[in-house]
């Protein structure tokens, strides 16, 4: 595990890098965090948005956070040729019947790269990029060379819908929609200085730092609870018709472990899953769907969910209403059923004398013995006790979220606020259900009682199965 001193140094360095990465860029702090985390995990990011939204400015800054490597940048068009990315052909190699390129100074030789308008290149270039981005290898002539690539940041206005583009799109673990600055921050945007380039960052990561981080990341554990949530999400994505490859799932888990390692945690937290929308959703709409799914479940087990508890409380309320309305057959002092014709004469007007027929009367409210009432109140008491435990659990999750968000380098503040609001709302909903359960208990306690006799124990109220 990371030592306290090493962790303190790592956290301080990352905070300084993040500050410089987003300095002067309005509403781009979360994007900066996502891009840097992807690079630390050895993954690639894709910025998707209209022109003029600081995609290029953010991407160009990333290389300033890393030392010991070359930076490569290229704007692609539909007329781009492989030489622009992979280097010119070697004339001397051609003279010896070898098809090789001079890769020095080009993408195969870079550690951090920015490729603007990535999908405007032809399919030949995109196919050549697939192996380089995923395996960090490049076919140069008859041989395959290892590439020092750490991370590529791509930028595009839109993602085309074709087979080659889909395969290339899958190589970017972080898909980050970029929107224009909001109206509330427009004045700050206008007051921002022009981006004229930045000096090298005071703090930078070397290859030794990245190797050390990778070794620490390998030791991070993924709890069963997190694995279970990922499995549930995978099933939910099938229903959302969101396709996620097995390769992407493996990379996502490594990213989560990297996030934990940079914060000196031995285990992945369920709150790390707030990173998932940008990794699993292909566009803004699907990312919002995934975020909503997570907000419904993070910190809230199914047994604690207000809809589930509501159904349980409603079962007791329905039982109480049924018992309050229940009637018994009315018997006279000799134990015979009471019959009456006169009471119904005004309601029956047939010509055959039906009004005179004897009828049983149902005017006696059912009464209940102590055994019945004690059984009902005991079952409600069990419900109230469980609700109290659920409320305490949700409050503990809210405290855990507050602690996590305060220390996290990567959590989106907007997601943290939404999760906090959801937990607070759940606590209020559980409190309201407790009051309803208390009212139901009082109702059972006030049921009409038998004058003598203990009565018999009723069957338990049927409701959703408990899940502690």
From TrEMBL:
This is AAA family ATPase. CDD domains: AAA (cd00009). SUPFAM superfamilies: P-loop containing nucleoside triphosphate hydrolases. InterPro entries: AAA+_ATPase, MoxR, P-loop_NTPase, RavA-like_AAA_lid, RavA_ATPases. It comes from Denitromonas ohlonensis. SMART domains: AAA. PANTHER family: ATPASE RAVA. Residues 41-179 form the AAA+ ATPase domain.
């Amino acid at each position: 595990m990371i030592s306290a001193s090493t962790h303190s140094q790592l956290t301080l360095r990352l905070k300084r890098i993040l500050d410089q990465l987003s300095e002067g860029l309005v509403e781009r702090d979360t994007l900066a965090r996502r891009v840097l985390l992807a690079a630390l995990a050895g993954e690639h990011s894709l910025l998707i948005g209209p022109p003029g939204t600081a995609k290029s400015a953010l991407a160009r800054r990333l290389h300033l956070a890393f030392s010991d490597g070359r930076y490569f940048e290229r704007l692609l068009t539909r007329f781009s040729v492989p030489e622009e990315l992979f280097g010119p052909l070697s004339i001397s190699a051609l003279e010896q019947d070898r098809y090789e390129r001079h890769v020095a100074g080009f993408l195969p030789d870079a550690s951090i790269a920015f490729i603007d308008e990535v999908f405007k290149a032809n399919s030949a270039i995109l196919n050549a990029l697939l192996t380089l981005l995923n395996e960090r290898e490049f076919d140069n002539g008859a041989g395959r060379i290892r590439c020092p690539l750490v991370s590529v940041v791509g930028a595009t206005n839109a993602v085309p819908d074709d087979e080659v583009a889909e395969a290339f799109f899958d190589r970017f673990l972080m898909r980050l929609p970029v929107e224009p600055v909001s109206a509330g921050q427009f004045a700050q945007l206008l007051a921002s200085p022009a981006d004229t380039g930045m000096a090298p960052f005071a703090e930078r990561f070397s290859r030794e730092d990245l190797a050390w981080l990778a070794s620490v990341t390998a030791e991070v554990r993924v709890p069963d609870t997190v694995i279970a949530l990922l499995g549930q999400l995978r099933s939910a994505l099938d229903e959302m018709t969101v396709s996620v490859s097995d390769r992407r799932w493996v990379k996502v888990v490594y990213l989560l472990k990297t996030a934990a390692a940079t914060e000196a945690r031995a285990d992945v937290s369920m709150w790390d899953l707030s990173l998932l929308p940008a990794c699993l959703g292909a566009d803004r709409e699907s990312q919002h769907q995934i975020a909503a799914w997570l907000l419904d479940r993070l910190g809230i087990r199914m047994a604690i969910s207000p809809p589930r508890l509501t159904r349980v409380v409603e079962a007791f309320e329905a039982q109480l209403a049924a018992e309050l309305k229940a009637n018994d057959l009315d018997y006279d002092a000799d134990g015979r059923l009471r019959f009456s014709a006169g009471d119904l004469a005004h309601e029956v007007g047939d010509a055959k004398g039906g009004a005179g027929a004897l009828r049983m009367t149902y005017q006696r409210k059912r009464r209940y013995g102590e055994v019945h009432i004690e059984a009902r109140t005991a079952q409600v008491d069990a419900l109230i006790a469980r609700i109290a435990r659920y409320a305490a659990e949700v409050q503990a999750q809210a405290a855990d979220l507050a602690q996590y968000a305060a220390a996290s380098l990567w959590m989106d503040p907007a997601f943290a606020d939404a999760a906090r609001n959801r937990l607070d709302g759940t606590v209020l909903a559980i409190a309201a259900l407790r009051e309803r359960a208390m009212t139901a208990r009082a109702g059972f306690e006030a049921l009409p009682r038998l004058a003598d006799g203990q009565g018999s124990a009723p069957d338990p109220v049927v409701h959703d199965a408990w899940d502690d």
